[in-house]
Amino acid sequence: MLNADPSDCSRNVVVTGYWPATNEMLRPWSTNAAQNPTGWVGENWRGKGFDVYAFFPEFPPDGDPMNDPFGSDGWVGAPDADLRVDFQDTSSDFWRIVDVYQPHVMITTSRGGSLGWEVEAFEGGHDGGSANPAEDWRSDQHGATTLPTQRSIEPRSWDAIATYRRGKRLNSQLPMDAVVAAATALDLTSVQIDDGTSGNYLSGFAALHGLYYNQLNPHNVAAGHIHVGVDVSTADARQLMEATLDAVLGQFNAAALPCP
Of 76, 36, 71, which Cα lies nearest the Cα of 59? Predict the structure, then answer.
């Protein structure tokens, strides 16, 4: 149930990343001193009434997973990091994080190909040609279980991938036009809305989680996914994320939002 007193709760934003530059761009919003030794900047972000928290994996020893074999520990992230590029780890970490922070806004991000700042219009709807929803997804080639099987992921993750498949999708709940306008104004890279999904690898898996959380929780007023191009620098990506946060949070009066 929603708390009837809107003055009695925090208004949290959770942003997540995977491969660089998405993990690097989110460091200022991490409360983990090992990941962000310069200090958390997310408290009451720019006076908008929201606290912003970031979660992302690490890729030792050089920070570049592309130097490591597909599916290796270097590719998926350090074992003690959040949200490794692995179905089981992402499922477990995602629900642990959102159950603690209960975000009013959920933004997932991941690294894309030859693109800039791409807002995904919808997620899910995959069809692997099997009755088994796990087979809609591309193997992560990591560990003993390389697909999101019912026994290996959280029940809510299974519900999401079992429900939103075979053409049944969830629409982005971000103010996409506002995000595009704010990001375009920076003139740093190409910016667009992609009339597609984030795919059937870990990007799409995380993205579907964000939208499914929105479906399950009435207090969540915005959720969606952004793909960040491989050639977008960390500095530029950070500016684009700042503009995106401003655009999204500017749509809402934080004090008027219901508590979880």
Answer: 76
Give the pair of three-digit tokens for residue 106: 């959920």
Look up the pTM and report it: 0.96
User: What domains sit in the chain, N to C, each tagged with a CATH number?
Assistant: 12-256 (3.40.630.20)
Q: What is the pLDDT of residue 5?
A: 46
Tell me the β-bridge partners of 225.
108
- Give the pLDDT of residue 3: 36
Which residues in 202-211 are b (16+ Cβ under 10 Å) and which e?
bbbbbbbbbb
47's tokens: 């006076």
pLDDT at 4: 39
Q: Which long-range contacts (CB under 8 A, 24 or more apart) does 93-98 make?
A: 93/55, 94/16, 94/154, 94/157, 94/206, 94/209, 95/154, 95/156, 95/157, 97/14, 97/16, 97/55, 98/14, 98/213
